[in-house]
Amino acid sequence: MLAAIGVDSVAELFAQVPEPLRLDRPLALPEGMSEAEVYERLAELAARNADCEEQVCFLGAGMYDHYVPAIVDAITQRSEFLTPYTPYQPEISQGGLQAMFEFQTAMSELTALPVATAGLYEGPSSVASAAYLAIGATRGRRRFVVSRGVHPHSRETLETYAVGFGAEVEEAPLADGLTDAAALAAAVDDETAAVLLQSPNFLGSVEDVEALGAAAKRHGALLVVAVDPMTLGVLRPPGECGADIALGEGQPLGNRLDFGGPSFGFFCGAEELIRKLPGRIAGETDDVDGRRGFVLALQTREQHIRREKATHNICTAQALNALAATIHLAWLGREGYRELGELLLRRTAYARERLAAVPGVEPLHGAPVAREFALRLGAPVERVLERCAERGIAAGYPLGREYPEHEDGLLIAITERRTRAQIDDLAEALGAAIQAEAGDLVANSATKSPEGVR
Amino acid sequence: MNQRDEGVLTIYERSKPGRRAAVLPDAEVPEPPLQELIPAKLLRTEPPRLPEVAEPEIVRHYNRLSRRNFDLDTGFYPLGSCTMKHNPRLNERVAALPGHARLHPAQDPRRAQGALELMWLLQESLAEICGLPHVSLQPSAGSHGELAGLLLTRAFHADRGEARTKVLAPDTSHGTNPASVTMAGYEIVKVATDERGGVEMDDLRAKVDDEVACLMLTNPNTLGLFDENIAEIAALIHEAGGTLYYDGANLNAVMGHSRPGDMGFDIVHVNLHKSFSQPHGGGGPGAGPIAVSQRIEPFLPRPQVVRRPKQGGEPPWREHHDLTNLRPEQGEASYVFDLDHDRPKSIGRLRGFQGNFGVFVRSYAYILSLGADGLAEASETAVLNANYLEARLAEGRAGKHLPVAFDRHCMHEFVLSGKPMKKDLGIATLDLAKRLLDFGFHPPTVYFPLLVDEALMVEPTETETKESLDAFAEAIDQILAEAEDDPEKAKQAPYTTPVRRLDEVKATRKPVVRQPLD
Amino acid sequence: MADASYPEELLYHPEHDWVRIEGDQATFGITWYAQDSLGEVVFYEPPEVGSTVAKDSPYAEVESVKAVSDVIAPLSGEITEVNEALADAPERINEDPYGDGWLVKVALSDPGEADGLLKAADYVALLG
ipTM strictly over 0.85? Predict the structure, then answer.
């Protein structure tokens, strides 16, 4: 090979790297390991994580321990889906393009908005991306009004991106677990590019999106709604509530927890926004022989053509994760998806009632909930969580850090894997933990502080 | 039925009322009417029209679809700028371990020490490879890393009381660069390329001023050429007070041989789905972690994964560490790993939770598998393979009709121009690419970079054998020979793929982006 | 339109735009060369009636499947009419760039600017 190139050594090929910039030592990393050794090392790291097989998981906050059917892995692990890149050559990418088309159809059905893209990274950055779209769509307005019920990660991400947009973000408060409608309406004006809501919101409450959205309509602002894709079988979809954009965290559909990623963000919009949407969109067409086929449509929106005027900078997205979602939705099917939503609603109602009956536990608010709800504990939340963890239960998400006004708050998530027995167990564990803490309080003059972190 | 003729139905068209795959658990709890739980006006009246298909049909459907895809595990995929290297299946196996796969992101960090340690080790490894001490794994892809880098730049300047307005990038830059610049609120200014294929220094000097916040480069660049002036470029931009950003898309050329930090870059993004073997997934997932210099560190996204000595109270350990002798702790760990939220100058969050952890697992497994020696060898072989293929394509018909755009040794990729081919043989780069499909190859990247007419960007990567490269060169030669005889052959190609050329005009004029179900 | 043509009665801007002047009203469009380079036009969004255009500055974009092109105003003025039909039939720009493919009508603010434009023969010479 060197002869063909016309050099005597590979080193000559690196001659274009100036001498002072050539690393004169090996990288300070361990030497390569055998496959078996790498496996052992990764298994050892995995063993030090309390995963959902070790602890019963009531953690939610946007990502949930749903059951992903085995066929999802079987299909997404196929080389033909796993290893190609973006379908730039459509003739040899019909599998991926049709999968995108089927995904887009599914998300459009779920949200009741006519146009869906092939997806973005995850939920919170999709919220920020919607804000970016709204600037363009409202010819340069640079104010956003976001409900405090929107996921804290989404609000924080929006704040980060807003610095680049030169935009201002105002937060509308919650009242008793729901967005304060009057405060929201007062915050929206003719400079508002978008009103951003979430339903169910972070505290689990199902919001009246249509009523809240009226303020956006009055001022010509876009209504952006983040939704939970597992609840759209039973909750009124954003497209029927006046949303211009519906988006959210797609993880519950077909994707593992994976300590937070990769998952995907779905992003759907009204017809008139189609040319402003971010990222890939598959479209149907015909080939020269009249066969039906699919291509990447409306590419002039994207960075590889529009460059600095692109609707978004995204290139690599989360295609495989979107495929996983499509398969999961096909597996659930029209009836199964609705049934699953009903099951979540009923188990959640049961859980809230059961837990609220535990001494020292109260619901944080009385708003209707779908699959997640917030409680108030009569003992320090971190201590209660620690005791429950010792019993093999990850009891929920402590609200205090992101909602200081709810320092005693705990967010409990329900999936179809959380059985009645596990819920009853949680009730017992919470009760015992609160009692033990009360006992400790009486017995000791100071509460023990948890060692280590936070 | 051969797959070209089989009409492929969508999953919706295979739907038959009453069929289903899922068996769900019983509710086990009381089942009041939903209206008792949620006000009727907030309830859905008609369920979404998802397909009704049994499990065997679902599997057949997606298996059939998969066979309508060309993929890297099946054939050569020299897509320039994408680094389509082999994806080891070990990485899938370890990523699927329940300790990684079924770990909730909000799990107490004390009970996610394996995950946090993995992230920390990956950070340290990337820091060493890039030559920059501080890493954030949060960005989800290269573009996301670019946005992060520009927001870090903005925060850096704001911290010094400055508000600069412009970002420079070469005319050869990947489209994501200018798109990210606009999202970060800057104005893009293009810098010319000289006849060696590097940054045109006089043009750069003319454009660097105190309004320039940052210069975005990749090195080697999208022409596959290492910019010998990089040290001077770095000095120029730093003297003017700007930051120097490295698009890590081409890192595969220099791992273990040269480090962007040593070249003078302040901020680097790494594409884990390129150099670090994360499978491309048909368009993701990937990840775009960023490595930054000491002066940029305070602005890194929050939260950061940090390591602290176990005896509490001490601040997070922020210096960079030599990992050569790192071994799993025997017995009780003397360190703890944590998510540090206390970052007063941070630009904030870029996304939910901690990032694409599943991608980190795979990339870390890859780094462990290759090690210091293997990573350096990977880059060396990538450069060797590219130069060999470039040399093969400089011979015969390819040499005549598809000359290399810049006549010098490339690094890991090279760009050819189809302009003579178009003139002499009447076929465009597009036609060549379509005819390559019939030969069982994925074509190189076409029509990028914009600087080169009828561009063809070829990146073989290190995981191709000599035979694979030879076969590709032979196919090119054959196609050119065909075109000498009959250009129509390529212009009407492909013939043997599941579909032939598609009407993109129709798809864009009257977009149909979902199945109508009415 | 299959064959290149550059009507004599029009004036041309080097960025491949034409003007038909009638008193102090003008009609703008893109030339045969421009539509040929672009390929089949798939999308054109007309600017708003009442907006101003400035000579040598872009006032709209024309899109093909794989490219986007700025349309440059050959003269300055205020837009009085836009070709709405192009929203549904952008291909008219290819088929009849000087007729049905017209883009905007403008009330000129400085008719004297026309002196700086090219005659058909000079524009063709520019194309080389």
Answer: yes
